[in-house]
Amino acid sequence: MEPKIALQLWSIKEDCEKDFRNTLREVKKAGYAGVEFAGYHGLSATEVRDLLNELDLAVAASHVPYEKLVDDFDATVAFEKAIGNTRIVIPYATFPDKKGWEDFAATLKTLLPTLQAEGFTVYYHNHDHEFTSISDFDAVAYLATALPGLKLEVDVYWLQYAEQNVDAWLEAQKAAVGLLHIKEMQAEPKESTEIGKGILPIVEYVQKAKTFELPWLIVEQEAFQALTPMEAMRANYQALHKIIEECR
Asked: How confident is the model at residue 248 (pLDDT cuts 50, 70, 90)?
């Protein structure tokens, strides 16, 4: 199985804020097969769905804050269904101690079956703090163990940033890994950059995704050096597409 390429729209958030419709048109022109939402910039679910249909762009996933799922469940579910999304990603959580993560897992345990009954797969997206903020505690691995129905959207950049052995960690959590965020890292300063310009073994991550039979590789970039976000968006597609072709 060959994964398709999607863009996490947070990568070009300022452009989305200025002109969401035309920005998505540019994403499609760049070659992306899908997008991962991080907000809808004032468009209704019908408007989003119609725009995706017009552009022949798929919804790879949507980042939906945990609080929104708890506080506005019905409207959130209705919106995501209307745009054709089936993957809800909780983009962030943080707690000062293990008890906080345990309570979070307990709440998710009641939420997951409800969302699954509505046709959604639920993911958790990592940063670096889940591995570093509490001594000898991997919060992401804990969630995967405590919640067998939860999938992981693994951000390889943040795994490396947290000084994890990325390959070994992915193998250990293989059963739960459902999506990969492909984000490149430059050495100095340590921040994201365009694919192929950094130090991460992106080829190995693509090969891993194919072995795991993942449906999407989701490009994300959060820091920019020589290129604008839109220029970087185009360059990242070309670089990742070339890697995928070479891995065939």
From this structure: confident
